[in-house]
Specification:
By secondary structure, the protein is of the alpha/beta class. The longest helix is centred in the last third of the chain and has 13 residues. Helix content is 31%, strand content 21%.
Length: 205
C-alpha cells in the first residue's frame, strides 16, 4: 500500500485545490486558535465543500470543547479527527469517527504514552518546548520505527520537506506522512510547487 500524504494547516480554498491537484490524500483543517494556520468553522466548511470527494478532511484540535468537535464533524464532512493536546483516550474516541492521537516524541521512553490510547492511529511529531507542532524540525526516525510495535498505523510528521521525505518513507515505512511548514512559502500559505515536489518524492520512494 502506498504511503498516504496529508497536507496539514490548509487555510484557503486555493491551497486546498492545489494540494488535491498535486495528489494529496488528506487535508488538515486546523481548529486551534493559537496556531498561525487556524481557520474558522465557516472557512473550514468552504474548503471542505470545494475539495473533491476522494480527499479526506482531517479536523485538527488541541484540547477542544466537545461542542466544537461535534459542530466541525457535522458541518465540514470530516473523515478523521486528530487530537494534538492533552486529550485522553476516551475523549478522542467518543465521537464515532476515526481518531488520530498526536504525540511529540522526545525519546524512546516517551513512546510508552501510546499504550494509553485506543485511537485508530498515531501521529508522531518532533518535541518542542515552544509549540505543539509545525516546528519544522525532524526527530530521530528510529523512534518512529520503534512505535510500530504498538500495532497502529503511524503518521510521520516533524520537519518533513521535499528533500528529506523520501528517506523518511524508506526508513520508517509509515502509513502516512504529514507536512505543513515544509511545503509553505509563509505560515499558513502553501506553495504549489513544493507540494507537488513533496508528493512526487513520496510516490517515488
Amino acid at each position: 500500500m502506498k504511503t498516504q500524504v496529508k497536507i496539514c494547516g490548509v487555510t484557503n480554498v486555493a491551497d486546498a485545490l492545489a494540494a488535491a491537484a498535486a495528489g494529496a490524500d488528506m487535508i488538515g483543517l486546523m481548529f486551534y486558535e493559537q496556531s498561525p494556520r487556524h481557520i474558522t468553522l465557516a472557512t473550514a466548511v468552504e474548503i471542505s465543500r470545494a475539495l473533491p470527494p476522494f480527499v479526506l478532511r482531517v479536523g485538527v484540535f488541541v484540547n477542544p470543547d466537545e461542542a466544537l468537535v461535534a459542530r466541525a464533524l457535522g458541518e465540514c464532512g470530516l473523515s478523521l479527527l486528530q487530537f494534538h493536546g492533552d486529550e485522553d483516550s476516551d475523549f478522542c474516541t467518543q465521537f464515532g469517527l476515526m481518531s488520530l492521537k498526536a504525540l511529540r516524541v522526545r525519546d524512546a521512553e516517551s513512546l510508552n504514552q501510546l499504550e494509553q490510547f485506543h485511537t485508530d492511529a498515531f501521529l508522531l511529531d518532533a518535541y518542542s518546548k515552544s509549540g505543539l507542532g509545525g516546528t519544522g524540525e525532524p526527530f530521530n526516525w528510529e523512534l518512529a520505527v520503534a512505535a510500530r510495535r504498538f500495532g497502529k498505523p503511524i503518521f510521520l510528521a516533524g520537519g518533513l520537506t521535499p528533500e528529506n521525505v523520501a528517506a523518511a518513507v524508506q526508513q520508517v515505512q509509515p502509513f502516512a506522512v504529514d507536512v505543513s511548514s515544509g511545503v509553505e512559502s509563509a505560515p499558513g500559505k502553501k506553495d504549489a510547487a513544493k507540494m507537488r515536489a513533496f508528493i512526487q518524492a513520496v510516490r517515488g520512494a
